[in-house]
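dumping this here before i forget
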Amino acid sequence: MPAIAKRNDYQTVITTFEMTPGTCQDLIDALNEAYADFISKQPGFIAAGLHVNDAQTRIANYSQWEKREDFQAMLRTPEMRERNRHISALCKNFEPVMYDVIDTYRT
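structure:
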């Protein structure tokens, strides 16, 4: 499970996917399979979480990596390039964006 904290020693990536309710479950299945079989086994992977909205038109993926280069290396592998082609066919668009955690708040 990702732990959100104000730290600068890891890379946070938030990826948003836009799809139709008809392809939502297929996309969730593809993402779960990618994490279980490949992404979670890549060097530098720390944790990830998948979130879907109630209309099943958007998925948000929060992942953490030891270094931004680890995430970039994973994306460049032939296996992930093939998986991304399949994922792309299931959604209107998706965009991974790297972020730094600036602050967190809890009660």
